[in-house]
Amino acid sequence: MESVIDRACAAALYSDGDAGLDTGASLLAADPSADEALHRRGAEFVRRAWDRGWQPADVVRTVRRELDEAGAALAAALITAETAQYAQLPLRWADQLAAMPAPAPRNRPDRFTYASALLELYRLLLRLPALEPAGPAPGTAAGAPHRPPVHGEPRMLTRIRALLAKAEATGFPEEADALTTKAQELMARHSIDEALLAARTHSADAPGALRIGVDAPYESAKAVLLDAVASANRCRAVWNGDLGFTTVVGFEPDLESVELLFTSLLVQGNAAMTRAEAGQRAGGRKRTKTFRQSFLMAYAQRLGSRLAADTARVTAAAGSETGARAGREEDGALLPVLAARDVAVTDTAERMFPRTTTTRLRGATDLEGWTHGTAAADRAGMGGAGARKRPLDP
């Protein structure tokens, strides 16, 4: 005999209208005995998302984007319950779970409204497309953490985060420049040290991937900025504009650097744009969306040039240092080691995304926005997709 859950899901999940949702919610609201089975069905949909390559942050971000904050809280409740069954979770999942919104309580504000919202969430989960896996799914042999933290790494990351937080908080551009320059130098040096250590110990570490949200507005400019940060930190970035994220491929220390630096530079850029707009308004000139788009695009382009130059400088200095160490044959091998890692990252990215396309982004049309964005990038502290797309310069 068909259960209440089956009848409610059949009515609500396979149609686009509100009538099916209302029918399914009415069936569920009238039968409290179906509550546990309803949530078990939700856990099944979440598990299918993991099998399709999704991770907790991806699901919550998409639900928030397609539904609302209340839907994200419902998704958080399902994810929290589903992931509690695993003894170990993949790398980064603990941080993603900690960053989720508070799980929504059941049957609030009333049974019908709650059931309707839950079925709408299930409809979305059911239709999530398959993604290129950015790591193993929980419950698989590969799903347990595969690499213990390198000695000293937590302290290094804590120091980098502290430097970037100070750079974001200060109102003095010169101080922000010095702070974030130091953070980028620590990131670059840490990456080089990890590469040399892996080569000496014949480590089996391979490139991994993470997804970083790229949210509206001005997502194309943000994607360009993230691409620049990834390239400067020996990673590859592939933007999925339809789903609102970029997948970054690289070795673990470099992925950490990309996420930290991109987040910080985006905060600094938004603050600089707000100051520039205030100055323009004070001069009697009204600013528009074209000003902001041009500002952020110029900011991203200019930072890309600076990052590339600074990475080359830090690498050259490190190569000179290692080459000067007396009598140690392996110390002169920095550039071949880095080249081998670059090849590994490129190969991994091409296997994950064999059919990427390029797209020409909307160009900057506001000269003052471009000028202010370029100036903000020069002041910023850093260092001394539908179709998957890799942004091109406009």
What does this structure look like?
By secondary structure, the protein is of the alpha+beta class. 62% of the residues lie in helices and 6% in strands. The protein has helices at residues 4-12, 18-29, 35-51, 56-66, 69-83, 93-98, 111-126, 153-169, 173-201, 219-232, 252-282, 289-323, 334-352, 367-379, and strands at residues 208-213, 236-240, 245-250, 357-359, 388-391. Strands 1-3-2-5-4 form a five-stranded mixed sheet. Strand 2 and strand 3 (245-250) form a beta hairpin. Helix 1 runs antiparallel to helix 2 (18-29), helix 3 crosses helix 5 and helix 3 (35-51) runs parallel beside helix 7 (111-126). It is globular, with a radius of gyration of 24 Å. It starts with a helix and ends with a strand.
Number of helices: 14
Q: Indicate the percent of residues in helices.
A: 55-70%
Distance between the termini: 60 Å
Q: What is the strand content?
A: 5-15%
Structural class category: alpha+beta
**Large-scale geometry:** globular
Compressed to H and E, one letter per element, the order equals: HHHHHHHHHEHEEHHHEHE
Overall mean pLDDT stands at: 85
- Radius of gyration in whole Å, from Cα? 24 Å
Unreliable sequence segments: 146-152, 326-331, 383-394
Topology, number of strands: 5
Q: Biggest sheet: strands side by side, in what order?
A: 1-3-2-5-4
**Biggest sheet layout:** 5 strands, mixed
